[in-house]
Design brief:
Low-confidence stretches: none
Largest sheet: 7 strands, mixed
Structural class: alpha+beta
Bound molecules: adenosine-5'-triphosphate, magnesium ion
Strand content: 5-15%
Mean pLDDT: 96
Radius of gyration: 28 Å
Helix content: 40-55%
Distance between the termini: 88 Å
Amino acid sequence: MRIEMPYEAEWIIEKIRSHGFEAFAVGGCVRDTLLGRKPGDWDITTSAKPEEVKQIFGKTVDTGLQHGTVTIIKNRKGYEVTTYRIDGEYHDGRHPDSVEFTSNLKEDLKRRDFTINAMAYSHETGIVDEFGGMEDLKNGVIRCVGLAHDRFTEDALRILRAIRFAAQLGFSIEKETYRAIGEIAPNLKKVSKERIQTEFTKLLLSDYPEKAVMADETGISPYVADGFGEVFDAEREWLTRTGACGAYGFEELKSLPAEKSVRWAGFLRHLPSGRIKQILKALKLDNETIDNATVMTAAAAVPFAPEKAEIRKQLSRMTDYQFDGCLLLKELNGEKTEEIRRLKKEITDDGDCVSLKGLAVGGADLLAAGIPQGKEFGEILSWMLSLVLEDPALNRKEILLEKLRERRDRQN
Ligand code: ATP
Ligand code: MG
């Protein structure tokens, strides 16, 4: 079988071979190509030691020399070339204490996590498949290389990788591998929250986000974050309540765009606001995502009256992106949003003011009107904005300043 690879990968493999060493494309790129998916990157594995790789190419970047990885830049793209290696003992449940180089490709494939990730390829040799990866690819199965229990004990991150790959590829997890996940779940305590989060985010952004229920079924959710199990309870409760009969939890997330904030918001949307924020923070999501997801879910939880004043008010409280995300969540919950969308479009087309930035009066106007700079400034501007949100026709400097004079007269 011949696999198409980028010219640069062919060139690197050929160059290493011409120096008398072995070299293959390996891992994700082989898996994805066989599945007809576009690989993210092409990793190369070789019998040449890092120093030898450096000598062959002259110009290289030391990316992970202690693990045997050297990056070759060709046509402005980076290709990681890693020496065949055997991982030493694992004591921290996450990293090998040491690595040892070997000249045996099979040894290198053996240290890899899943059979579908443990295949190598070169034009000369074809596919090297020592652990039944092709068969598992054909059957859509995630299976550990070797004994699942041992492999997850070595590195607990593999637990999340298994579920993440199942979600990205729409695969099932082989029985023994699945059982071992439940057994070794407590070891996830040894994995950093950032790593857990990156894997879970990939899962939510995938084509099969409903595979998230595996986190609950296998029993890993307590180790993902405090209160994470509640997400699944709330989803089940919602499915029952809305009578989405036969629907599998989280399948509805597929209709959301594959964007981080929106998918996290959709996933957590049945939980109380405080809980949502707590989980996102515990998982070390970035502030922008936390902000977007909390605003979207909070706004989606309250009904919007189909009136322009109300929609303008909502728009003033969030970004356009958050507003659109909020509508998507409302749709997931079965709310109709056509009328809201129509009104929002009118508001945008008419250029109605929905923020302090769009207000016809600014700080300088208040100063000129004799208002001393200070706390009152902000209050007055917010008050003016609230008038304008009710009635956009009021957004004119002379009108707003006149309203201000009336208000001050009343107050005196
Ligand atoms: P992706 O599309 O997410 O990049 P990938 O399979 O390329 O998928 P990487 O994390 O880039 O995944 O890793 C490259 C290869 O290294 C994997 O295919 C696998 O063979 C091996 N690998 C990565 N992480 C582990 C791990 N934690 N334990 C064992 N092998 C691993
Ligand atoms: Mg990769």
